[in-house]
Each structure stands twice: as structure tokens, then as C-alpha cells.
Amino acid sequence: MTARIKKYGLIGETLTYSFSKDYFSKKFEKEGIKDSRYELFELKSIEDFCTLIEENDFSGLNVTIPYKELV
Fold first, then answer.
1. Is the separation of the CB atoms in 4 and 56 below 8 Å?
2. d(CA 35, CA 11)
3. Handedness of CA 22, 59, 15, 54 (dihedral sign)
4. Which residue among 28, 31, 52, 61 is least enclosed by CB atoms within 10 Å?
5. 3 state SS for the chain
């Protein structure tokens, strides 16, 4: 039986400045959390949000401006 990988991430318009992926990846490693991944998801439009959610099984998300209030 294969363990399910928990997917976490950050949603935003432009994420080149974000330190979140590096931070959470290191935190998971330090804490021995092997079943979790943190990724960045740049959306060019909030309309892409529904597709992203439908195509992924997220365990948690962070959202930046300009999408924070819309999500």
C-alpha cells in the first residue's frame, strides 16, 4: 500500500519573491515529515482557482493578495 502524499501550497499571482516553499520544505525535513510536500501555484487569473482545486487533493493552502479575499 502506497502512503498518500499530503499536498500543501501557496496560491498567488506572482510568487517569485516567496520563501514559503523553501521554508516549509526545510521544516518538513527537520520535523521528519516525509509524507508532505509544499508547492507554489501561480495563477494568472482567479478563474483558474476552481480548476486547480478540482485537479489536486490539497491538505492545506495559503493564499496571497490579490486572491486572498476572493478565495
1. no
2. 21
3. positive
4. 31
5. CCCCCEEEEEEECCCCCCCHHHHHHHHHHHCCCCCEEEEEEECCCHHHHHHHHHHCCEEEEEECCCCCCCC
Strand 36-42 and strand 58-63: the pairing is: unpaired
Q: According to the model, what pLDDT value does residue 2 have? A: 63
What would the mean pLDDT of 36-62 be, rounded to a whole number?
95
Model confidence at 21: pLDDT above 70: yes
Residue owning grid cell 486572498: 68
Cell digits of residue 22: 523553501
Determine the Cα angle at 37 with ends 47 and 46, to 5°: 10
